[in-house]
Amino acid sequence: MPSKTVTSPYAPHPGTEYPFSIGDIAFATARALGDAFTGDSGCWGVTGQVHGAGDRWTISVDYEGDLCLTPEHGTDPIHYFPDLTAGDGLDEIAAAVAEAIRVDIVRMATHPLKSADDN
């Protein structure tokens, strides 16, 4: 009679499946933007905030699993990052989020009453 192989349920050690949190992305984004910006981690690290230039942006994950960026001056995300994954690494993700924040800062400076959807 063949023996049965018993497998354990998948249960990686903490920090091995996802080596950083959304809060870590916020801190890395603030570093990429420079000394005038700070990062913050939301509860449990599932959101993050970047503060600077008189505004705040929230980094989160939407219901489809995409990283998204929402400014304090708006109610809807201004940028989605559907092509980014944790496998891209913290620095690459932070650089992409920092660039989206830079674009938003310029947009708000030139068109302060327009939302991102009006462009």
Please describe what this structure looks like:
Keywords: Plasmid. With 119 residues, this protein is of the alpha+beta class. It has a domain at 32-109. Helices cover 28% and strands 20% of the residues. The protein contains two helices and five strands, in the order αβββββα. The protein has a five-stranded antiparallel beta sheet, covered by helices on one side. The longest helix is centred in the C-terminal third of the chain and has 21 residues, at 90-110. The relative contact order is 0.15.
Structural class: alpha+beta
Total number of helices:
2
Tell the overall outline. elongated
Q: What proportion strand?
A: 15-25%
Strands side by side in the biggest sheet: 1-2-3-4-5
Provide the helix percentage.
25-40%
The sequence of SSEs as H and E is HEEEEEH
Unreliable stretches (pLDDT < 50, length at least 5) are none
Computed CA radius of gyration, to the nearest angstrom? 18 Å
Counting DSSP E segments of at least 2 residues, the number of strands comes to 5
The biggest beta sheet is recorded as: 5 strands, antiparallel
Outline the secondary-structure elements.
Elements: H1 22-33, E1 38-41, E2 48-52, E3 55-61, E4 67-71, E5 79-81, H2 90-110
Antiparallel strand pairs: 1-2, 2-3, 3-4, 4-5
Helix pairs in contact: 1-2
Keywords: Plasmid
